[in-house]
């Protein structure tokens, strides 16, 4: 069977492409922007990539067109697909029908931490000898790929609340029929498709409705938005986790940077985690992953041992290089909460060393005037802040950054940011680049400029 994927270089759709290829299908795809790490994965798997969206890319007609959620009416390929009556489906629907049938699905949902927690869970199951399949919205370093079929029955999926496709406005995660469900946290996000938090909560409750009575829901002990979702009705056992507060799963004796902590379950010590990750948020992610793995039959002691060899996901505080004692990191943070927790973790690791933070407000939500009231506060832990202000930004960048005083600067070009960092950076500095896109390859350009 020949699948053509529209929007193939998104992390989710790229994962669908890898799974289809592993099933023996012929796979091609097109996208407007092609950049690593997804493009590299796809090319290595023998998948043909095409730039742009043209009708000719669907000639001769594939057996099925898998449509990414970034596609909309008016797109030339979409219009041709509809006019010609081609067979089409969404990525989540294809995944549910061709991969997840008869699998024990372990799904990780929430506003933050989905990719990291999914990666942790997949690695734990791998180290337990279970050879899980997975589809993750990033590239876990332990595996080197964002998706694989694995062996039945276990399959880990990052469960995104974003809508499914232009013809299916339900959240992606309602397709997955999870047996083990992690709900990491819940805040307002995706302002381009949700009007308010209540709309997102309704989708999360649709997800809760799909978990069987013999399944398990794992959620934090202190998250009002998720408590309200559970309050709408739950028919599944629930276990709670918290980095510090005593509950079903919690941490004690943690180091300030979160690189070591003891795991406690049901008031019984389970062992000590010592790993390379930073911050309270990752401590919480670890507890959720250990709890989910136990539901799949993995003893906590095995999970704790697995975490010591866990390598973080690409673009999650990823050290891209070091030049003359200046370290450049890449991080996916693009929401005030994620920005604040990322900076907090780095600050606790580097102490008084200078942090230079570069931020691209790229997501649809960040471009709108949704989170501007929290943005400057989320950057407080940085010593210098360089904000990229694209032309389609819908707020006054200088005014929003004003509370940070002369620590913050606004730039209209990434080249200006590169030159500024080159001029100010000194040995011992930590340069943190935060964006959920390619950011015009600024990471490598910084390293080149600092040589």
From TrEMBL:
EC number: 6.3.2.45
Domain Mur ligase C-terminal positions: 315-437
Top-rank EC class of the record's enzyme: ligase
Pfam families attached to this UniProt entry: Mur_ligase, Mur_ligase_C, Mur_ligase_M
Required cofactor(s): Mg(2+)
SUPFAM superfamilies membership: MurCD N-terminal domain, MurD-like peptide ligases, catalytic domain, MurD-like peptide ligases, peptide-binding domain
Residue sites binding ATP per the record: 110-116
A single BP term in Gene Ontology: peptidoglycan turnover
Family affiliation: Belongs to the MurCDEF family. Mpl subfamily.
Entry function: Reutilizes the intact tripeptide L-alanyl-gamma-D-glutamyl-meso-diaminopimelate by linking it to UDP-N-acetylmuramate.
Stated name of the protein: UDP-N-acetylmuramate--L-alanyl-gamma-D-glutamyl-meso-2,6-diaminoheptandioate ligase
Source organism (scientific name): Candidatus Thiodiazotropha endoloripes
């Amino acid at each position: 069977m020949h699948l053509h994927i529209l929007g193939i270089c998104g992390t989710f759709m790229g994962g669908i492409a890898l799974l289809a290829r592993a099933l023996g299908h012929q796979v091609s795809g097109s996208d407007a922007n092609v950049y690593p790490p997804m493009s590299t994965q796809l090319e290595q798997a023998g998948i043909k990539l095409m730039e742009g969206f043209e009708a000719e890319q669907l000639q001769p007609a594939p057996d099925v067109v898998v449509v990414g959620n970034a596609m909309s009416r008016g797109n030339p390929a979409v219009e041709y697909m509809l006019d010609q009556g081609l067979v089409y489906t969404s990525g989540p629907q294809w995944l549910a029908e061709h991969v997840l049938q008869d699998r024990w699905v372990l799904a990780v949902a929430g506003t933050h931490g989905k990719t990291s927690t999914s990666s942790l869970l997949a690695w734990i199951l791998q180290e337990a000898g279970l050879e899980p399949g997975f589809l993750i919205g990033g590239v876990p370093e332990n595996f080197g790929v964002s998706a694989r079929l694995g062996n039945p029955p276990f399959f880990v999926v990052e469960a995104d609340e974003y809508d499914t496709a232009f013809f299916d406005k339900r959240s992606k995660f309602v397709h997955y029929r999870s047996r083990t469900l992690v709900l990491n946290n819940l805040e307002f996000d995706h302002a381009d498709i949700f009007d308010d938090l209540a709309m997102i909560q309704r989708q999360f409750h649709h997800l809760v409705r799909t978990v069987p009575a013999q399944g398990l829901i794992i959620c934090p002990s202190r998250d009002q938005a998720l408590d309200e979702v559970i309050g709408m009705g739950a028919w599944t056992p629930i276990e709670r986790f918290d980095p510090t507060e005593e509950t079903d799963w919690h941490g004690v004796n943690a180091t300030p940077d979160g690189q070591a902590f003891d795991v406690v379950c049901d008031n019984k010590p389970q062992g000590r985690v010592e790993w390379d990750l930073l911050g309270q948020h990752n401590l919480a992610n670890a507890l959720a992953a250990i709890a989910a793995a136990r539901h799949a039959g993995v003893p906590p002691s095995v999970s704790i041992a697995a975490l010591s060899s866990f390598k973080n996901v690409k673009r999650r505080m990823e050290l891209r290089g070091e030049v003359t004692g200046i370290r450049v990191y890449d991080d996916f943070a693009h929401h005030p909460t994620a920005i604040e927790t990322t900076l907090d973790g780095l600050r606790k690791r580097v102490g008084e060393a200078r942090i230079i933070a570069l931020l691209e407000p790229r997501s649809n939500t960040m471009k709108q005037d949704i989170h501007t009231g929290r943005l400057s506060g989320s950057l407080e832990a940085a010593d210098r802040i360089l904000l990229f202000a694209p032309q389609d930004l819908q707020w006054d960048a200088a005014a929003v950054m004003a509370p940070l005083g002369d620590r913050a600067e606004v730039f209209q070009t990434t080249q200006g940011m590169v030159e500024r960092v080159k001029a100010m950076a000194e040995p011992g500095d930590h340069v943190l680049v935060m964006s959920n896109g390619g950011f015009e390859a600024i990471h490598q350009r910084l390293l080149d400029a600092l040589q």
